[in-house]
Amino acid sequence: MQKYGELDASYKAAGEEQGIRKLVDEFYQQMETLERGQQIRSMHTESLEVIKDKLSLFLMAWLGGPKVYRQKYGGISIPMAHKHLVVTEQERDDWLYCMQEALKKQDYAEDFKEYLIKQLSVPAERIRQVSRDI
């Protein structure tokens, strides 16, 4: 049995494309409704259609699934894509909080939810570090 992070084990644990899109939809719903998500939400355009697609496709590849993001949007460096934003510890933590709340509503195994939030904290922190250099 594969461990999370090996080949496509994480992608499968997330429910593949359908499960990842469901997570992303819930994540942005949390951002829209939670007070802690308001500052993060204000950093996005009014329409979330494209950003939801980008995050979904990025997560699919990042979790070991199909590399569709690159085909559709080109290459990406997550920290550099966010460099224009001011991201403090508070914004980083609020982003992770919204994701954690979204994860609570998914049918994922508890150990996968823990694994995923831990893994997502790495690029979230890297975004904060790059932002700090502005």
Question: Which descriptors apply to this entry?
Answer:
134 residues, mainly alpha, Globin-like, 0% strand, globular
Question: Mind explaining what this structure looks like?
Answer:
It is built from eight helices and no strands. It has one domain: Globin-like (Orthogonal Bundle), CATH 1.10.490. With 134 residues, the chain is mainly α. It is globular and about 40 Å long. It has helices spanning 9-13, 16-33, 38-41, 49-62, 68-73, 78-81, 89-104, 110-132.
CATH superfamily, by name, is Globins
What's the mean pLDDT score?
94
Poorly predicted runs are: none
Which percent range fits the helix content? 55-70%
What is the distance, rounded to the nearest whole angstrom, between the alpha carbons of the first and last residues? Answer: 44 Å
Q: How many E strands?
A: 0
Q: Shape, please? A: globular
Q: Name the structural class.
A: mainly alpha
CATH architecture designation? Orthogonal Bundle
| Percent of residues in β-strands | under 5%
Radius of gyration: 14 Å
Specify the CATH class.
Answer: Mainly Alpha
Largest sheet: none
What name does CATH use for the topology? Globin-like
How do the SSEs run, as a string of H and E? HHHHHHHH
The number of helices is: 8
